From TrEMBL:
GO terms for molecular function: transmembrane transporter activity. It is a multi-pass membrane protein. It comes from Mojavia pulchra JT2-VF2. Keywords: Cell membrane, Membrane, Transmembrane, Transmembrane helix, Transport. Coiled coil: none annotated. This is Quaternary ammonium compound efflux SMR transporter SugE. The chain crosses the membrane at residues 33-50, 57-78, 84-103.
């Protein structure tokens, strides 16, 4: 179950990172509230996963999911550059996340 909590925490991290963009420096109340709620929920799910998982593995996967998902959504939603080099680097993050999951004994 810890891996499910960690996945949820990572997805929430993507949500609040994108929410930061939409909140425009916390100047839009609705997006600001949703962003802070996403942050809190993300930390709750991460802390729940940390009851079982090693902190280094869990934190690396959490940030990897967040970084990868936010970068992809930045391309899709905000027309950020989608160069081959950038996509390759996002793929490296994905490989690291998947690799850590498979080599973890928990």
């Amino acid at each position: 179950m810890a891996w499910v909590y960690l996945l949820i925490a990572g997805l929430l991290e993507i949500g609040w990172a994108i929410g930061l963009k939409y909140s425009q420096g916390f100047s839009k109340p609705g997006f600001s509230i949703a962003t802070v709620a996403g942050m809190i929920l993300s930390f709750i799910f991460l802390s729940t996963a940390l009851r079982t998982l090693p902190v280094g593995t869990a934190y690396a996967i959490w940030t990897g999911i967040g970084a990868m998902g936010t970068a992809v959504l930045g391309i899709v939603l905000f027309r950020e550059p989608a160069s081959i080099e950038r996509l390759f680097c996002i793929g490296l993050i994905m490989a690291g996340v998947v690799g850590l999951r498979f080599v973890s004994s928990h």
